[in-house]
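To whoever is on call:

I kicked off a structure prediction for a single chain this morning and the downstream step that reads the tokens threw a length-mismatch warning. I double-checked the sequence; it's 1461 residues and nothing unusual in it as far as I can see. Pasting both halves so you can look.
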Amino acid sequence: MSLRGSRETVSAKRTLSNILAGRVVKRPKPGDGRRLQEAALQLLEQQQNICSLLREVGSEECPHIDLSVSDVFPSQDGEQRPSQSQGSSSAMAGSLLVSELRRQAVRLGVPAAVLAVRTVLERWVEIKGSEEGKEDEGQRRRLLTPSQRVQLCVLLESIKDLLSEGVFCPKLLWQQYRRDQRPLLEFVFHLHVYNILTFRSILERDEGVRSWLVSELKDLCSWRPPGGDDETRRVQQRVLSTVGGVLVGAGFEPAADPDAGDQRTAPLCCALLDDMLFWLLDIVDNSLALQRDGAAAELWIQTCDASLCGASASADALRRFFKHSLTQTFTYKPRLTVSEAVALQSGWTFARACVLLTSLFRKLAVTFGAEQLLSHLQQILETREVNWKHVLCFLSTLLVYSAGAPPSLGELLSRLLRSAFESYDPENLITAFLLARQGALEGPGVFPAYSEWFTVSFGGAAGYHATSKKSLVFLLKFLSDLVPFEPPQYLKVHILHPPYVPGKHRSLLMEYVSLAKTRLADLKESVEDMGLYEDVSRAGGGSRGPWAPPRCQAVQDVQKAASLFGSTGRIPATVMEASIFRRPYFLTRFLPALLTPRALPVKADARMSFIEALNKADKIPAAQHLSYVEACQKQRQQDCATRSDGDDDPLAVLAVQLQGLAALLAEERDGEVSAELSRIAHTLSVVFPGGPGELIGQPLIRLHINTPPAAGLHLKAVNMILRSFCQCMLDRSRRHPSIAQTRWASRFVGVLLGNAPLLSGLLHRLWDLFHKQGPSLGAPHLLGLATLLVHLHAAASHGPLVQLAPPLLPRPAAVGEALCSALVCDTQDNMIFCVRLCLLAVCYGMCRGDSFPQQQQQDYISSSLCKKLQFLIPRLLPEARGAAVPDGGPGCEEQESRPGLWSSATDGRNSWRTTAWLLWRHPAFCQLGLVSQYQLSLAEWLTYELRVQRAEDVLSDPERQEYQQWACLEYFLSRPEEQGGCGGDMKVLCAHLLSAVMDQQSSDRVPGAFENGLSGPGTCLPDIMSRLQELVYEMEASRLSGGSDVHHFLFGLVSERCSSAGPPGAPEPPGLGGRLRLQHALNTWNSVILSLPPTLLVELKTEGGETTLDCNEMIEHVNQHQREACPGDGLLSRRLTTHLLRGVLCAGARCGRRAEEVDRALSEISLRCPLLLLSTARWWERSSPVLLALWRRLSGGAPPPEQLQLLDDCRDWACSLETGPPRPAPAASALVLAASLHRVCGGHGPGQRAFGAALDVLRPESRKQDREVLLFLFFLCVKDFLSGLLYPQEGRRRAGTLCTDLLSALVDAADWLLVFKPNEQPALQPFTMMTSQEVARLMPWAFYSLLLQQSADLQHKAACCPGFLHTAVLCFVGLQQLFLDGHAPPADQNLAAGRSVQPFQVLSRAKRLLLGAISTAPPAALSAAQLRTLQAQCADLDPDVASALSVHADPHSLSPEMDFL
């Protein structure tokens, strides 16, 4: 009683902890330690319960037991670091405990270690049971509470003290613990952490560890700490990672001595880890378990992290563990057969796979390269049975997350195919097909389409199967064996893109095709349902299941057909053919997709117009069309009353995913970016479902540049994408100026390129931004759009081509190049915007490409953007002209690095001028000047300069003149021609300027050119013309001082331009397009040449000290080219005629004998260039004042040359015939007299009197000269008559009357017939040289039109002329050919009654006239040679005429019975 009471009294007063604490805080005195120990021993003799003593030491009243988390977990060296006071008290308490344990062990007769273990376990049971009453039933707590954890840590400290004194046995502790209790994982963890009993030693000694450890791990993963208990959650993660690390280290660490130690531990650890992996995989495969235990499995996946390396496992052990786990995953429960994998694999893409499975693969693959993983996968596939779902999901995950996986997969496929065809192994072949299809399912941004892979592998003569017939049979048998299991889309790929088969083995392929079509028919997916415009791409993927159903394909066909109808205005031929030959598809697929009800727009769009056209063509059943109209009306009413649910709105999903992408980039979780982009691509395929993800080869996207993007769902999605990309790029650039941090942008652009409808909408929006809203864009927009433009350009090799409409580019271009065309530099605002965007893009491209090999660096630098900078920087920065070194000259500065260049471009404190100046002198940019594709040529510079609007130019007129002179004379003139310059040749410079001016004037007439910034009024054309005039004058001055002649250069250039007016490398086409191009080129040339000095058109020759005129090239030019461009009157224009004559006069004034040289030149012109002479006579009344005044100024008032005076006299003579009295005809050429008379007769006055007087004065039967005048006058009147037939006008009747009167005067002789066949008679060459090919081709029509309007008497007289029959037959042949070629003039609705004949009547009436002439002509009218030639020409065109000619050749061949004919 006294002892018990004494203990209670002591406890009530002061506990041992209080006593110890009190002794610690006091100042130590000599002898205090000894007295304190004696007192403690006396007290311990009274306190006999050691367990109570331990509880008291660990009680909450002890001040040094207030432990934090850092106290619970030792430091890295495994030791606690208590304070000095705590260390003193703990050491003393340990000493006391050891003493008491030994005393009690002696008293009880047991070893001290046994008593210590029993005491510790009793204390552990007390700690663990202290909170059990607070737990709910069925929710057993898997970890200690914070207070329990603190008590346990104090207990463990005491155990360490006992160990240090040698009175504690850890092995005995575990034996007693395992015998009496089920191990708690956290207790085992703390024993391991405090180095009392390591987990590895437990594994080695506990044979039943597998029975409890796996279940404990599963329970711990499944258990969730109470909300807000972050400390327990961290303990949970620490326990799992520690256990996992020990298991990996013990199971996969190579043993230093294989013969030493227990060899059971490593297999045991492997088995334990496998059990956890199989538990996880079972959860993944069971949807119910996934919902229940998905979080637990995810927690264990987080445990399998590379952070285990260095703690309990080395890097090699971790890699072996990951490799082993991958093998186990690949081979776990291989239930699916290959045929099932073929049918189901489209559901195993990354976007559709279980997130737990893809997360597991990411963790296990993190320490390996793509090539290593695929090599290991190949080894597993060749040696083990595999779970195809796991294998293919792993492949998808690898392709999405690893940039190096696609090329490595391509190499693996090549190895598999090579091995398959070398040993004829179907297993390797099916493996290759499965892997290739799985890669294609992830989209074109990740791996090529299956159709593309199949075509590359088997579509050519170099395919793996093309080596022998045996290989071919092997492939076709393999494909045939797959047919029963194949999804329809793959069968379509094989049918539309069959493997290459030599002609002699074609039957083998046809057998397979027949089998595949039969299978498609069984699946109700026959070839009939392939669609009208089906573009076979990857089978499956997207949002539409394993393959696009016929309904989706019909939607694509409808969109394609409506687009074609919108661009051509005609129902596509493919649709018309389908309505006849593929009627089931047309009625059951195409029309339902076309007539899908919708709210019709107020203004008819292309689809509405297309439906209306089909309805008018009776291709839509009336009842179906009526139902469609009614449904559309209902749809409009519903749209006004309902809204789409936000939860199902794909735009809302897309917005969340884009925000998630931005968050991942902000958190620098680059490993998750690819996965998020894959999900974004999946959503975009829902928003833009109009077509397959990719096409075979390079598809073509039509970019309608004049059509603004249509508002709606697609525009919102595109704006959302652009906004997100720009924001992400801005945020990323702020945090990481390094270009290496923008690799996500390449994958982002890959997603955009994988969806053709999305890309089309994106391009339309970008074109609208660049072309119309560029100056209003801010710096963040420019940064994002510039980088986007760079990545689009870098993806040109596997991206689509873009066709601009209208076609501003000569051919379809890559996406980046097409968008660069939207950047115009025509105004100050557009120039500033363009230079800012180009600076950002080029700087980014240079820095981005710097991380790639040399041959790939240029993929990130757009040549168009570089050339625009080479144009804009010297124009906007005058100081750059003096430092112009884009060719890598000495002005390049080497001190700036490429990252510094990008930092300068993105630094908001720097202006664009600073960046431009830095880039202009940067060595990398200078180096680009050595690459031909980046060199701005003179022709390109002129194109840019001629688009500048002078009124809105950043330069004033003097500044622009200074800049253009610098560019022409200092920059491009001296540059080598291979670098886009002129090589110092002034002629080359002038040729470029002249060609640019002509091209500019040509583009002025192109519809839509002005709207697209190509041309228009107010451009710099006058400035460039001034530069051209300056250069020509300089060349002319150098010619006078001994330089080369300019006129050779000018006429040679225009001759080259005229010869190339048709298709390149082809002669001038006879069609209307070729003639129009030639006329347009000549008209453009004439407008240019009129601005140049006229003296350049005539050559001065000096021989024997005498200077003479040489007009040969000018005459050649007029005869060869100008006559083809004459307008309807067949004459040169007045300005051109005057300019040419001014050149003759000005050049003649430089000769010693001026008048004689001018007369000689004009005489030569009258003989060799009748068109110029005729035009001179026609325009003489208006040109003579100018020319005579010029001559007086040049000659100092001397009388005009004789030829000029003769022209004046001819005019006066013709006028005298009108006014009277008539003067004698001057001694001029017949052509000049006829031209002067024609001007008066066909002028604005009546002219009838002059014509009558001329017929009275000129008697063709008396003088040959007079007959020639009337003959030339008849020729001119016939041309007027023909012009009146082509272009009906009031003067047509008068021209016909004049022709009738002249024909009456000339009909007695045969020379008037030569007018209608100018090319047949070289003697009258003036007719040929005054007639264009078009007029000569229409002369047969004029011949018969004129004759058919004459009286019967005049027709008879004409038919009696010698040579009439030959001419009439030739003209009839020409007339027939005219109608056959479709060149006959259209019917005239305004023809007056009487003798006028419509064009369609001319042919039939001409035939009757010709047959009558043949029947009445004497046999000698045609020679034998002429008859044979004419019969051969008429045999195919008109057998009746040919028969009549044969009868004319031998009239006696007719039988008497046929005489009545």
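Update from on-call: the warning came from a stale cache, not from the record. Cleared it. Sanity check on the structure: The first strand starts at residue 700 and ends at 704.
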